[in-house]
Design a protein that fits this description.
The complex is a heterodimer of chains A (about 70) and B (about 425).
Chain A: H1 2-22, H2 27-48, H3 56-68
Helix pairs in contact in A: 1-2
Chain B: H1 9-27, H2 37-60, H3 67-109, H4 116-160, H5 177-189, H6 211-237, H7 240-243, H8 247-253, E1 256-257, E2 261-262, H9 265-295, H10 301-317, H11 322-357, H12 374-383, H13 390-413
Antiparallel strand pairs in B: 1-2
The chains are: A mainly alpha (about 70), B mainly alpha (about 425).
Chain lengths: ~70, ~425
Amino acid sequence: MLIVMVILLFGSCFLFDFLPNAKNSSKKEKIVYLSVFAVSLLITVLYALDVQVPSISSLIMPIIDAIFGKRGG
Amino acid sequence: MKHKEVICSRMALSLFTLFCFGTNAILGLSTPSKQDSWFALIVGFIAFLPMAFVYARAIKLYPGRNILDVCEIVYGKVIGKFFQAMFLIFTLMLAALAMRNTYEFINIIMLRETPYLVIMMTLILMAVYLAVNGIEVLGRWSLAVFVVTIASLLFTFLFSMENMDIDNMRPILNNDITTLLDSAFAMFSFPLAETIVFLLIIDFLDKKTSPYKFFYLGGFISLAVLLLVFFRNRLTLGEFSDMATFPSYVASRLIAISMYFSRVEGLITTNFIPLGFLKMSICTLAASEGFSKLFGVSHRRKLAFPVGLLVMALSGIVHENVIQMFQFIDYYRIYAFPFEVIVPLIIWIGAEVKTRFGKNSENKPGTQQEPKGEAQEQQSKDEVPEHAGSQVAEDAGEISPSTVEADAENSQGG
């Protein structure tokens, strides 16, 4: 069910936001738009399918711990 | 010529205050210094003042431009793009954090069984709607929300008075100096210095509103509001305010006026959600600006929708769970330091050097360009496209000496 909602959301974004503006956009703008769109879609689909993606905090916190020492709770 | 979006100073200040109040109102203001957090907040505000000067000065040197333009003007294309990317990363991450905080609040307090994506989609659609409609709509909306929020804050403060106990503030200043400074640093980085996000979209300020006024007065109003929130929570809840997940919500739950009027927390909840997505909208708008400058897209609105979706996606993976969200608060101040302090300092120093010792400043004082008249200055501002490229950036370097003179006059006057 979640995946259907994701497809609906991203589909409507593509239909009602990207396509109407595509004619007035340069090739570079289309590439930027679609790249951001594709990355978002990929992450959201992974999340909807319950695929474990490492969290951003899990990447940042060990780096800070390594440089400044363990932070207290 | 593109229509330039500007808002009046009242709207700008309400945007600033609500941005600071935003997720802080949800998460509370508990710091390691506990009952002395008010002191930490004041010290954090004092520490913010020089940074507010840096933020405002970097913009004032190049009127009509935002910090992304300034990066490119001062440091050229390659290094400028690097700084632009830094701002973009910070803004995206901040938007994702704000969204996740708002989601966790909704999930824990109200909609326990509702799937994450359903709440997130609703939130992001509202945030994107505001971002797509631009800063004018955001400004008008923030003014209305500001009135309601402040009124409900005063209302909850007044009606919490019967539950307040002054002993909850004691012992006063019992913490050691290291803890107090660490707490002040926390208050500085979250939320005061987060307002650096405004530098990405600062071209919304009208001619009458100086960036100095925006940051100083906005910071001061935010300080007053945050102090009010802290005192309400601490005086009402005591030590429990350090342990509660959402202290403002818990504090307002205790309000009961006779036996007929209670459960005021609904009022608080309806305030927190607009505050959360206001912060999201501002960050989404700023991130769209960051993307459009970094990749040369003509207008930020074109990217508002996909950037909103990216924020939604990132908010899902920013923390594993709510425990990690609260753990990350301890790390946030260190993570944010380069973005909030080091990068702006580098840009400001570069901008000062460029405007003072740039090639146009080599003219002798007698032959230096006279400052432009107000009408001329306005005309030149209007002619600047909203998203100036590198060519315009070079042109900006040429007008800088007159800008410096005009700025010096302003700063003397102010």
